[in-house]
Amino acid sequence: MAQKKFNLMAVISNLRAGGAERMFIELLLRLKESFNVSVACIRDKGELAPLLEDKSIKVHISYFKGRLDPKSLFNLASLLKRENIHIVHTHMYRPNISGAIGAFIARVPVIVSHVHTVHQWDTKRQIFMDKITTGMKDKIIAVSEEVKKAYTEKVNANPEKVRVIYNGVDSQIYRADKSQSELRENFNIKNRSPVIGIIGRLAPEKDHITFLEAADIVSKACPEACFLIVGKGPEEENIRSCVERLNLADKVIVAGYRKDIPEVLNILDIFVISSVREGFSLAILEAMAAGKPVIATDVGGNREAVIDGETGFIVPQKKPLLMASKILNLISNPELRAMMGEKGYQRVVKKFSIGNMLTETSELYSEILDKKGIKKDS
Q1: Do 257 and 17 form a contact (C-beta atoms < 8 A)?
Q2: Glycosyltransferase subfamily 4-like N-terminal domain spans which residues (predicted)?
């Protein structure tokens, strides 16, 4: 007779094609081995929902007109009761508020929230709402020590209530040995050109302009260098305008959104993160898993991922000259690139694997369930 499992529902805005959403899907697919997993989206399903539905994980829509809308909260609470949910795991800011309140109303035994960043909390109302709902939660997961520190300070939370569980990736997906020639041809990149890339949402906080200003400096010293920008978002027009303004049209490829991230990483020689804000960058972990040296700005949890001088370089934000000098250093030193890339790969395998994330998350659930004396038939 199969052993009964606890019922776990993840509450999220939607399952759009974002890095955090992809990672959460990978986690849920693995949690399915030990829990009856389902998902509630408070906006819409999103394009990645079939990845879960194809594996027999139910994806519900529990639409919210506003994060405190009474009818929306009642509908979510009703769904949680109907599905006899033992654990609610909310994900990102709005679900961390609405999902926690809905779970509290439904008297779900275990409520856990996942905090990726607190930088977008720029109003007193947002901070006040999180302060109120913190008391409803058993634990808060922070994706880095830096996020934990910022969260506890902002909402005056007990540090004991916040557990750091780092994001994780499946290194085997990115380590696959694939030929570079076809993709280089598709991008019209010459075989010997060093390729410096940045992958992520085209948003103001990613500060692609500093990356382009660094590219301008590098291209003057190394004319054969090629720069690749992958992603979509509201800053695309500004980025393209900056490329034209700096006369970099023959050096920079703005590739848009792509599904083949492991293959794109495979053609890079150097990976760059130029953000002015980060929680804990999944893009950095993916690049390290692909064996690439990383140049990252000294923000958020970047320093917790990248070991300066070992797996890459940490540079101050908005300093294109310093960023360019590190890029040129790596371009001229292939042995250093290879060494840093290998050390980065080993670091991901040991510290930032999806397996580690799965184990630590499962152990957190079990710890709370045991502490509360909750049994599978309750």
Answers
A1: yes
A2: 18-171
What does the DSSP assignment read for 319-342?
-HHHHHHHHHHHHT-HHHHHHHHH
**Are the C-beta atoms of residues 323 and 331 closer than 8 Å to each other?**
no
Task: Work out the average pLDDT over 278-299.
Answer: 96
Which residue matches tokens 């060093």? 194
**Is the same domain home to 323 and 340?**
yes
Helix axes 124-134, 145-155, angle to 10 degrees: 100
How many helices and strands in the chain, by DSSP H and E?
Answer: 16, 13
- Cβ neighbourhood burial of 241 (10 Å; 0-12, 13-18, 19+): exposed
Residue 92 lies in a domain: yes
Q: Does 364 lie in the same domain as 315?
A: no
For residue 234, which of 204, 197, 279 has the smallest C-alpha distance? 204
SS3 content of the chain, % helix, strand, coil (to 5): 45, 15, 35
Tally the domains of the chain: 2
Give me the domain span that covers residue 312. Answer: 171-351
Q: Are 42 and 64 in contact (CB under 8 A)?
A: yes
Alpha-carbon torsion, ordered 29, 146, 205, 122, to 10 deg: 100
